[in-house]
Amino acid sequence: MKKLGLLFLLCALPIVASASSLNGQSGTLNYLFPDMNTIFESHSFTAPATVITLTYGPDLPNVISGNSIDITFGNTGYTFTPAPFNGEQFIFPGFTFTNVTMSTNLTGTTFSWDAHDIWVNWEGLTPNADSFVDFTINGNGGSVPEPASLLLLGSGLVGLGGLARKRLSK
Q: Which of 40, 133, 135, 142 could form a disulfide with 33 if both were Cys (CB 3.0 to 4.6 A apart)?
């Protein structure tokens, strides 16, 4: 009986584990200005979204795939006006973020995140054409099983099949 319980546990593990990829996740990219209650521009997407271009100011191409969001600036000579919030909001309702880190060559960029959202604030910044902001994401999308989880599931099913075969042969 203990073996049967152990095999059941092994079969249940793939339900708990899932990949941290944004691929397959649907979401919305909003440009919020001049505060977090005003949407200036909005785009729906399903990752991997090769390029979502926001057409305000410096034309910001956003690439969303795998476990990253990459933002680059196409134009120069543009300054984001000072405001309570002047930036982007990435919304992933089917994904739960456990950790988000940012790397950038744009001094003064700030960001925040919660379970399903990431905000990046451009308030008062003047980017160059080579300015970038990259986010590395860890989390749980719950939709794509990890390969190791599939292996566990398969092993558990083979074990259950062997137990059933052994009982039938008695």
A: 40
